[in-house]
Amino acid sequence: MKKTHIALLVLIAAAIVVLISYTGDLSSYETIASAKQKEGKFVNLIVKMDKSVPVQYDPVKDPNLLQFNVQDSLGNKISVVYHNTMPTDMEKSERLVLKGKVQGDYFECSAIVMKCPSKYKDNPNAMKDQPVTLSN
Amino acid sequence: MNTTKFLDEHLFPGQIGYFLTILSLVASLVATYSFAKAFFSKEISLQAQWEKLAKIAFIIESVAVVSCFVVLFYVIYNHLFEYKYAYMHSDKNLPYQYLLSCFWEGQEGSFLLWSFWHCVLGLILIATKKKWGASVNGVMMVLSFVQFCLATMIVGLFIFDMKLGSNPFILLREEMSWPILSRPDYLQLIKDGTGLNTLLQNYWMVIHPPVLFLGFASTTIPFGFAVAGLLKKKHDWMDNSLPWATFSAGILGLGIMMGAAWAYESLTFGGYWAWDPVENASLVPWLTLVSAIHACIIYRKTGSSLKLVYLFFGISFLLVLYSTFLTRSGILGDTSVHAFTDLGMNAQLLSFLLIFVIPYFVLFFARFKHMAEPQKEEAIDSREFWMLIGSLILFLSAVVIISITSIPVFNKIFGTKIAPPEDAAFAHNQVQVFVAIIIGLLTATGQYLKYKGTTKAFLVQKLKMPLLVTIIITAVVYIFVGVAFKEKGIGFEGAIYVAMFAAIYTIVANIFFWMTMQKAKLKSAGSSIGHIGFGMVLLGILISSSNKTVLSWNTTGISPLRVESGKSPIGNPRENITLFEGIDTDMGKFMVTYVRDTFDNLDKRFFELKFKEKKTQAEFFLYPDVLKNNKGMEGFSANPSSKHYWNKDIFVYVTSFQDNSKEDTTSFKPHQMALGDSIFYSNGYIKLEKVLVNPNVNRPAGTNELILQLAVTSKEGLKYTASPGIVLEGMNIQSNVDTVKAQNIVLSFNKVIDQEKGTLEIGVKESSALTNLITLKAYEFPFINLLWLGVIIMTFGFGVATWSRVSKLKEK
To answer: For B400, which of A18, A26, A116 is closest by C-beta distance?
Structure first.
């Protein structure tokens, strides 16, 4: 066996080890109910805003405290605490992906990914719903 | 059949456009076939005939693609909103310089751009045919076939109920089912387009896509050489392919980093690289292309690694197609902030990928036994051995990155619900920092190794000086810059230190190599300059990322007055700081004042921020801005602003803002106080310190003044003073209120309750509608210019390498 072949095998083995160890860090998408059972574990929630409870954000008091409520497709609800400013358009977005952990009775969120009707992209479906504003 | 006669439509450009898209489709197919015939025919005369036909077809195709571009530009430029593309991607207010950006906002336009570059490259290949050897017709065959595939993407035909491509010249009324579009005068009602996404209204977005797509398009040519080589079992194309490969790597690298510069200047994640899937997808072909170039050089010098040459050149192009699939199919959905929308062309995009992947690998494995390796094995002290290790590591690093990026694809295929790790960027960084270390050490030492073998004495003698200089510079960097990044533990911090050493070693060793071994000749400097630039990029990334500091640490909530509640733990500073208009705010090294806002003619709102360095009293202004979102979104998109120093950037952006346009509905609450008493308000307390009687000697005759001196102390420990008062003129009482804007309170002196006891009544009004405020994030990036300078030098190095390799080619 040539040295290059040995080196090749060693490197490929290293790459496989890296990928396997990476899978240990992976998280998962959860529902609110299943996230509650994994309290303290980092998860991703796919939810939408629960508009029946007002969003609390007052930059005068604390610009790094946002509290709001969400519900998932199964209808479960949870309140969310996010230590950052309120993302623009959050209330308008159709879907939120929240990254964070359940802590007791609330969700401690570390990042919010918004799925807006159109963010950085044109969405033909959103456009189809829109002509009301155009016709007169 | 719809017989409505629509008014004011300009249908002619669209008809030309449709014709041109179909013409380019047909012409590219003819070109593919004719180039294939010319490539495979053994008879010289027949070959020449086919070649002539193929050239004509390719030129026609190029004219069609360029005309298509012009017509689409005409449609956008003239705001012909009957066309969906103009309606969806532009509006009348769009500044002139961004009209080109409208092209690449949509998928169709960016396919057209890609196609355009293929035409340019193809025409260059045809015009300089003699330089490129016998396989040039094979390369053109592959190029024309890629062009055919791209043409299907924009042709927009329905074949047996299956939509083939999406045509950029489709009319709004053909695509949308809005009721108004059936009215003959609908164009009267559509006043304006939905505009270009505000994030794309940046000069980098004018230039980054063309450069990136030139990079993508140019990977096709080395791929074409590889396909031609496999088909004919001839491996003599390396010299012809190398200049294309170095050109491609240079442009692709530049394009990627222009995207990073755009992200830095216009996206607000506070950085230039986030390991976003879209970024990864463009980086990975670059890594494999660099592997391919090195494997190719090894093969030319030693005759080994031929299989890797074919594998790497093939993979580089196939990864470009794969990244096209990832970013355009919408499959990245939840994991990426930027990707194109799903146009319902996923099947077609997947076919585009597979039609190259499957035949290429079939051919590759079919030719496996023809790719003989020399019997003699590489010596462990030879240059080729370590170059091979280096290119394998780059390749495997690309494999790791693309595997991680492909998690959404994995989820789609297997129905799993795997999500990225908690700290997705760190998951990449902790692996890639070691890749950087090894590659850094190899690019430095490798230059001093000779092919076939190197003597130890030679290596020691030549490496002495570079190593010494490296150690000195590294020591200086460790002492004066260091690594401020401690969050991920000592292991990662140590790795960053080692990587810094490796990066400095790369720069120094390559400078020495060029000065001493290559006698400072420019023509042979390509690889040295490229490696110096690469080392600077590494060093710039390492220093700026590991020393990025948050300037806007907000310690609100750490004061003793703050009550701890479960949901807002005490003692954890956060990155956003609130600035009130006109009030100096303490921000670490600086005092920052939000001076005012200004609007430009496009309704962009600029916040004028005055920074005053406490130590030096030096002042500067920054103007981060927000632009009202378009396309049916509310809210604003923020653009950062930065102050550039030679050794650092101060980088700020507005995270939210609040106008005082709200109606003030709160009322004064009365409080009874005596001298020295304190009362509480929601964010602190107010103390009555003094009562002044007629302090103003110049008051009008017959009036009496009573002025209170109040000390306001907030929970954060900030102190303010306020002096509300009353003026008595006969029986008239006039109250003069005073405000503490930073605390959003208004104070009034209502009346004297009991003169004997000295009790007074003051009014306190708390309102959030008092003043404009913004919340801000501010970072400091040290030595980020090293990164940008490194990119320029690396691109220049690739340019020199391309130029010297082209000039060495003999015309046949």
So the answer is: A18
